[in-house]
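Structural prep section.
Before we set up the soaks we want a predicted structure of the protein with 4-nitrophenyl phosphate in place, mainly to decide which crystallisation condition to try first. Input record follows.
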Amino acid sequence: MKSILFVCLGNICRSPVVEAIARLEFERAGIDVYVDSAGTADYHIGEQADSRSLASAQRAGYDASPHRARQLSAEDFDRFDAVLAMDNRNLSDILSRCPAPQHGKVDLFLRYAGVAAPLEVPDPYYGNDADFRRVIELGKTGMEKLIGRLRITA
Ligand code: 4NP
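Run finished without errors. Recording the tokens verbatim:
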């Protein structure tokens, strides 16, 4: 089975929501992909997703409540086929920890998904409701594009 790890900074706002969207949309599409998420930082290890993320996800029909935050680990580069960053800072942090032969599996989520622009899912942590809704919108758009791509290459 193919596997994708979604990565942001804290693993409480963006990547848990994108993981939840990906899990449901892959299931709806009948595509067998294992999904997980992690953070580059250790600030929130063991915590649930941010309550604002949980609420915006739930309003859109996605359940991120089982999630508990964890930090990106060295084994993730062996375990996952793709390690996808939410923004350019996440991307450079991931690449700085990733062995050179595995750099090819690391990318921005939205670029990998085939979204033309924007390529970043902006950090909503210090933002407002609209910023959290934007995470959902970009997650849904990215997954639509990614599933479309997988159908073409399948
Ligand atoms: P995330 O958002 O990377 O989407 O989970 C953040 C969560 C926590 C912090 C920053 C961003 N923080 O500074 O604690």
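Observations: Helices lie at 14-29, 51-59, 76-79, 88-97, 109-113, 129-153.
Flagged for discussion at group meeting.
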